[in-house]
């Protein structure tokens, strides 16, 4: 299994391919032109490594290989994830829609409030059908949730990003008001590590995913820089409960958010508890 938290799990043939082409990369990029690893990484993106025949062939040969990745979310009931896995939204008439309805009722939203929020959710589901209703989004390295505030934002509220965007679409300050605020207070900001086969990953994502390993070896082995994985992608379909490897609470989540003015004093009731 390829695990981006442990580079020792990366396929040796990818490293070998990079080392055999060191003169090619040196001809493209002079190390003296870079002072930070990400400057080189940006240049590597420009040569579209994911389109290289080596990566295409590697994917074809290893389509059943498992990859371990992470998903950020806010969890109200850990047992539900352990029993059901990570479900996808599936759109109108789905179990996920019913779960959202029950959640909204539980926090005290009235019928009109629920209807208004769902109108915005339906717009997002209909506009981005594949990415919003039949995918589990992931990032590849555990440390990203601590290094990138855009990533830990997925754990801000119960119900997920579409619920957050729907409420912001009504009024950007609405999340500060009850009963909507309950979605930001209840539950536990968490990351879930799960495994999936390469064939279960969106086609474009899987190519970019393997290209990440190529870039890692170019940046570290050829040019001597450290490398940070900032890659995000999506798995098609739900995550089965047996494929969940770990569930962790995001540490110091409130402190992360309180760096921003909008969350100053927002979580005071949690601190008192």
Kindly describe this structure:
There is one protein chain. The protein has one domain. 47% of the residues lie in helices and 14% in strands. It contains 15 helices and six strands. The longest helix is centred in the C-terminal third of the chain and has 20 residues, at 203-222. The two termini are 41 Å apart.
Low-pLDDT segments, ≥5 res: none
How far apart the termini lie comes to 41 Å
What amount of the residues lies in strands? Answer: 5-15%
Count of DSSP strands = 6
Main sheet: strands, sense, barrel: 4 strands, mixed
Helix content: 40-55%
- The radius of gyration computed from the alpha-carbon positions, rounded to a whole number of angstroms, is 21 Å
Number of helices: 15
SS class: alpha+beta
What overall form do the CA principal axes indicate? Answer: globular
- Mean of pLDDT: 94
Strands across the major sheet, in which order? 1-2-4-6
> Would you list the SSEs in sequence order as H and E?
EHHHHEHHHHEHHHHEHEEHH
Count of all domains: 1
Quick recap of the structure?
This protein has 273 residues and is of the alpha+beta class.
List its traits.
47% helix, 273 residues, two-stranded antiparallel sheet, alpha+beta
């Amino acid at each position: 299994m390829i695990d981006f938290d442990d580079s020792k799990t990366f396929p040796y043939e990818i490293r070998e391919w990079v080392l055999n082409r060191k003169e090619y990369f040196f001809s493209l990029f002079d190390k003296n032109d870079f002072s930070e690893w990400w400057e080189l990484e940006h240049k590597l993106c420009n040569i579209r490594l994911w389109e290289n025949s080596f990566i295409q062939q590697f994917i074809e040969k290893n389509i059943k290989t498992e990859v371990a990745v992470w998903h950020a979310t806010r969890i109200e009931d850990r047992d539900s994830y352990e029993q059901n896995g990570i479900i996808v939204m599936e759109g109108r008439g789905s179990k996920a829609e019913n779960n959202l309805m029950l959640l909204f009722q539980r926090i005290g939203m009235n019928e009109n409030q629920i209807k208004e929020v769902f109108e915005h959710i339906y717009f997002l589901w209909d506009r981005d059908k594949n990415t919003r209703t039949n995918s589990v989004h992931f990032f590849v390295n555990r440390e990203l949730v601590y290094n990138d505030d855009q990533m830990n934002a997925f754990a801000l509220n119960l119900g997920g990003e579409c619920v957050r965007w729907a409420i912001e679409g009504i009024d950007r300050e609405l999340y500060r008001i009850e009963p909507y605020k309950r979605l930001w207070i209840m539950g536990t900001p968490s990351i879930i590590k799960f495994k999936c086969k390469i064939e279960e990953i969106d086609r474009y994502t899987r190519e970019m995913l393997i290209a990440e390993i190529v870039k890692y070896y170019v940046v570290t082995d050829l040019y001597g820089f450290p490398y940070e994985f900032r890659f995000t992608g999506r798995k098609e379909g739900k995550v089965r409960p047996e494929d969940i490897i770990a569930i962790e609470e995001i540490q110091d989540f409130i402190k992360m958010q309180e760096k921003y003015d909008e969350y100053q004093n927002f979580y005071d009731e949690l601190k008192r508890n």
